[in-house]
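Weekly puzzle thread! Below is a chain. First person to post its structure in token form gets bragging rights.
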Amino acid sequence: MCGIVGYAGDKQAVPVLLDGLSKLEYRGYDSAGIAVFEKNAIKVEKCKGRLKNLIDKIDEKGMPSSHVGIGHTRWATHGEPSDINSHPHGNKRVTIVHNGIIENYKKIKDFLISEGYSFVSETDTETVAKLIDYYYNGDPIETISRVISEIKGSYALGIMFRDLPDRIYAVRKDSPLIVGLSSDENFMASDVPAIISYTRDYYLLEQNEIAEIRADRVKVFDRRGNIIEKEMQRADWDVDAAEKGGFEHFMLKEIYEQPSAVNMTITPRIIDGLPDFSMDGLDALELKKYDHIHIVACGTAVHAGMVGKYVMEKLSRVPVTVEIASEFRYRDPLVEKDDLVILISQSGETADTKAALELAKSRGAKTVAVVNVKGSSIARDADTVIYTHAGPEISVASTKAYMVQVSIMMLLAFELAYVKGKIDKEHCKRYVNELKRMSEAINEAIELREKCQYAASRLIISDSLLYIGRGLDYALSMEGSLKLKEISYIHSESYAAGELKHGTISLITEGMPVIAVATQKELIEKTVSNIKEVKSRGAYVILICDSSVDIEDGVADQIIRLPEADQLLMPMVAAVPLQLIAYYTAVLKGCDVDKPRNLAKSVTVE
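Winning reply:
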């Protein structure tokens, strides 16, 4: 997830672009850059690191005088964070900034090389810039239309043509983009915060609509070149609210960002319909040799690892242990030289996970880090790093970071099973295709928010509650329980449903809430019998289940039915209502949702 801005107006463009990027740095901070028109040429300044590095560089060189330009702050996907891979990209005729992923960039790149083009970066974006240059015939709308008919993936593009120095162009598909409107200046941006200091009026660009932005006017075209009449939107937010994209809290905003984050994470790692981690330096043949896998993490990341364990063992028949990092490091674990140790951490700085990494390396095991923050300690020290592309996560309670961690676990499980010969190519492709559909299913699950609000209204007077499930649902219930307790301060515990009779059922009292997760069809009858046990003892049952399951009357007090998905992937769908129930419970109780007491985003001490 990256942030892009554009400006055409009567002000100096550079300060406006830098100010806009500062409001979008939450979308990425691996590098930053701007491009402006100066003396009949496109002037580019960009560099690795935080936006401040770019500002210092521009201050040192002197600020170009220009009234038109584009800017970018990057969360790296294709190509490591570096000066060269920073945006903008292009050549003397065309320069662009890009948020998204171009899935067929390799095919485009090979074609352009055959046509005499050369490339300097590792990015997918440079291929789009040079494809625009290849087709440019003096008509920008026609050129852009032709290019977007050939590229596949998600994109929000800001485009400058050297021979049109009074304007910029914008187009989007799947990635967000707005056009800000004012009397003597107009804007383009990934999100409202970038423009709200200048205007509250804007257009929402729809799929493949092309905007021509000049200081005194904006025109919007469809891909056939027809002018479109757009309805103007108005942002009635203050600046603080705008940074949350109009959402009341960052946590809710980040729940809504999950479909995009999953797409950004898995798309670069799917080649010809199969999992491919070669971009991360994890060779399929090397993966094949591991007969024992350890997954080590803390907090929410442990629960992502639990989901990974279930799916890996089921498909590949390779034994997988999941351990809390603080326990792993102090119990003299049985880690052998030929084992694979996967370490999961959102921040890449978690102290116990770092120590577990050092221990695994000292035993000679292969270490793979699954982290979200580029250049973090765990990422630097692991043998191999798989970066998730959730973008920055501001709320302390993890949502989208968990979701992308699970998506990586799924993709690793599919590849492991395939290279071990436990599933054939067609089965592997089917699983991958189902994973690609998850963004749609997650979006549908978000639409269950009103049912989740109602469930939350029944929890706020409770002192304690239980989450129950079996198999993958048990792994998921652990995450649901953690989410609720950490932001609402209501005591909750998760139990394997079959364990209720071994002591826990004694806790059930009249009206006590029990949240039951039942998405695994082969276990549904057993889980329902456990639900009946707690219901008969007075529990108020909220059931989250597969939409295709037939539940008899009276089993639950409230049923939240999920969008359809493959059984193995249901944890990604069912996680959403659990997140929303926790969120709305905390809101109704008046808790500080994004900054719960006693907690920090990154735990860098023991």
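Puzzle host: Confirmed. Bonus trivia for everyone else. The chain has a mean pLDDT of 90.
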